[in-house]
Amino acid sequence: MTLPKPRIWFLALRPRTLTAAATPVIVGSAIAVHSGSFDGIAFLCAIFSALCLQIGSNLANDYYDHLKGADQINRLGPIRVTSAGLLTPREVVIGMVAAFAVAAVFGVYLISRGGTPILIIGILSIIVAVAYTGGPFPLGYNGLGDLFVFIFFGMFGTVGTFYVHTLTLTMTPFLVALPIACLVTNIIIVNNVRDVDTDRAVNKRTLAVLFGKNFARAEYAALAIIAYLTPIVLWALGGFTFAVLLPIITTHSAYRLIREIYTLEGAALNGVLGRTAQLLAFYGALWAIGVAI
After folding, report:
1. Alpha helices, DSSP H only, in the chain?
2. How far is CA 173 from the centre of its chain?
3. At residue 127, does pLDDT exceed 60?
4. Cα-flanking dihedrals φ and ψ of residue 205, to 5°?
5. Which of 28, 91, 97, 290 could bridge across to 244 with cysteines, CB 3.0–4.6 Å?
């Protein structure tokens, strides 16, 4: 395959995954707007840092999955540039390090504002991004990928953003972060259901491999249900307007995706993967509007 270098790097960055990085920052900032403590510089630094962390994570996964033989010729998902020979492993590692370095540069302001908690979250985020597929105990290969995506890309991304705006913590941002964490995790679950056979072949022990496809499908459905119950709970608790129910507009899309993950197999799940990422973006936009008002 011969492609222009910029096109190859575009593929390597996996732009469709970037909603998973941007949405928690947008929602965390929306809670800050609601509380009257929004900081524009913090928002810009947080979103660019999150995007770079996601890109670094994508490149790390590309590199380490290649080393472990997880991206074989019979891969069902989108092309991976290292295994396809489009970029050398050295190029991908350099890109990964550069992405994390840029994330750290944007993080300087966030650390100066939020102090040690933000420094710790930033360091742990980079470690987890690499350890997802790399290191002596790769999280994604040992049944922990879903949990750490839920915590770091969902909860920490949202709550941490709220904190750098307000420099305070309450239970509200944790509750608001919950549906985002659920829907971010669902993106990983689709990957795991699609790749269960090839993952098993290379001893990649995702939850779908350990407990079966139906377990992972039920996990996807349960997380989606939690995401749509949360706005109702938040509205019932008071403190927000009726607008927090806006994400319920997307319920039909979530229902259709649940049906598809139960009925489709293999490469057909690539469409479900893309639509799950789109659902996160649409839900997140409506959720941000609802909590900001």
Report:
1. 5-13, 19-35, 40-68, 89-114, 116-131, 145-148, 157-166, 171-194, 196-201, 207-211, 213-237, 251-263, 269-292
2. 17
3. yes
4. -95, 75
5. 290
What's the pLDDT at 153?
87
Question: Please, what sign has the CA dihedral across residues 188, 193, 199, 203?
Answer: positive
Tokens representing residue 65 in the block: 């999955």
Q: How far is CA 146 from CA 9, 188, 191, 232, 285, in A?
A: 26, 7, 11, 25, 23
Average pLDDT of the residues in 244-265: 97
Identify whether the C-beta of residue 16 lies closer than 8 Å to the C-beta of residue 150: no
How far apart, in Å, are the Cα atoms of 124 and each of 30, 129, 165, 200?
24, 8, 20, 28
Find out whether 24 and 81 touch, Cβ atoms under 8 Å: no
The alpha carbon of residue 137 and the mean position of all alpha carbons in its chain are separated, in whole angstroms, by: 20
Separation CA 157–CA 181 (nearest Å): 9
